[in-house]
Amino acid sequence: MPNPVPRTRWEPLHASRGLSGDVEESNERIMDGTMEVGVRTTESPRDLFGFRLIAPLALGSMLNPVNSTMISTALIPIARDFHATVAQTSWLIGGLYITSAIAQPTMGRLADCLGARRVYLAGLYLIALAGIAGIFAPSLRALIWVRVLLGIGTSAAYPTAMKILRNQAAMTASVEPRMALGILSMSALSTIAVGPALGGILTGFGGWRMVFSVNLPLALVGILLVFMWIPNDETKPSGFGKFVREIDFIGIALFTGSLLTGMLFLNDVPHPKWSLLVLFVVLGILVVFHSLRKNNPFIDIRMLVSNLPLTVTYLRYGTFCLMAYGMLYGFSQWLQGGPGLSSTKAGLITLPMSVLAAVSALVGGRLKTIRNPLICGTVGLVFAAGCIALITSGTPTLLLTLLVLPFGIPQGICSNANQAAVYAQARQEELGTAAGLLRTSQYVGAIVAASLLGLLFGKHPTDHGMHSLAWVMVVLSAALLVATVMDRTLPSAAVSEQHE
């Protein structure tokens, strides 16, 4: 029997690049006792996952996080134009996150059925449409629906990017594209951080509608790059029949209902509607019962119960995101409503913090442990929240910039460490579901943050509201620090070392 050809050098005959000059010969491939016809390629893994493949995927993966935070410096101008309160404009935040919490895993399943490239392009078309609609939105309600459309479109990027990378690796039998995956992760974390500054600059330059319209050219560039550089889907779409059978629509409806009723209750806590709280609890119970009865539920309660360390990581990350997004949205609104700064100046004040967050995200990605970075990042969170409690409307601009600067450090470090914890704690066969639920915990944290701001700020951001937010973050971050120190299930070694 001839020796098997090394797996890292093979590409199926049906590959979309075809038989070109980089193909040396065709041979028989022996694997698992079966014969397959394949061709050997001279391309290295670096070439296979190079700029042309990564650029369109990284661009798309940026659009959801940048839209989530870019609007923070546009909320006050939007509220002024539509005579809305902070609680009402919080639906611009919550609408995107509720949609994203549902659409991200759903788009991933749709990509499995119809093809990742097709679904990715469909998402970019929706983003372009949302960019146009944002220019002409006549009311706050219409603008909320634009954000919902953006949530659906941008949610297609990350799961389809992951699938395109996996397809490329499988097609060439190459090793895991760690650098490509790292670029996607860093792109998302960096754009979350720079979103407020970018939103402030755009709003100051052309008004808050620029925050929406900028999605049109970004989507068009993404569509062009996909047509130029992303390989066609190798398989024909299996159709909507398989999609309908495999998607847990009942679970999605129950989960969506619980998020909506919870947010509606939190948005008007001073005048509580207890019927909403009762409905939230009932829907939550139904989510649990439905999950336990279904084979492939939208929220896998069995996985959460059987893997408590993973569940703790979701709670920890959701709490961290509550504070991170509360700070990103709350501080930007306060700068315009308290000191009365323009959107551009508000964005520029947060820019150093954003740059520090991006740098800390890159540093966090290179750390080889999980437990210690989480503890250090949470200590930094306590300190940063305490600094926020010192600011007032009379604080000089330079001092404001310095007081919020420490908040950038825990953003990158904690995000990377929690992501690494999921990969270390989840079972291999559940890793896809586990990664999706991490995103869901992030969105739930952001939704609660939006509701909390509506409660603390009321109709207008004030010093008292900002101080209240700061002390809430101090208490939460201190509790998070104690819980992290006491959590002995956190792996202390590097993720890669654990799987060796």
Overview of the structural elements:
It is a single chain. This protein has three domains: 7-43, no CATH class; 45-247, MFS general substrate transporter like domains (Growth Hormone, Chain: A, Up-down Bundle); 299-500, MFS general substrate transporter like domains (Growth Hormone, Chain: A). It is globular and about 60 Å long. It has 500 residues and is mainly α. Helices cover 73% and strands 4% of the residues. The chain has 22 helices and three strands. The model is unreliable at 1-45 and 494-500 (pLDDT under 50). It has helices at residues 45-48, 51-70, 75-82, 86-114, 116-136, 140-155, 157-172, 178-206, 209-213, 215-229, 240-246, 249-266, 274-293, 301-306, 308-337, 343-366, 371-388, 397-404, 408-425, 431-457, 463-486, 495-498; strands at residues 10-12, 23-31, 34-41.
Give the low-confidence spans.
1-45, 494-500
Approximate strand percentage: under 5%
The CATH class designation of the largest domain is Mainly Alpha
Shape: globular
Structural category is mainly alpha
Main sheet record: 3 strands, antiparallel
Oligomer: single chain
CATH overall fold name of the largest domain: Growth Hormone, Chain: A
Task: Name the average pLDDT.
Answer: 79
| Strand order of the biggest β-sheet | 1-3-2
Total beta-strand segments: 3
State the CATH superfamily name of the largest domain.
Answer: MFS general substrate transporter like domains
Task: Count up the domains.
Answer: 3
What is the chain-wise order of helices and strands? EEEHHHHHHHHHHHHHHHHHHHHHH
The rounded Rg comes to: 23 Å
Number of helices: 22
Give the CA-CA distance, first to last residue.
31 Å
CATH-level-2 architecture of the largest domain: Up-down Bundle
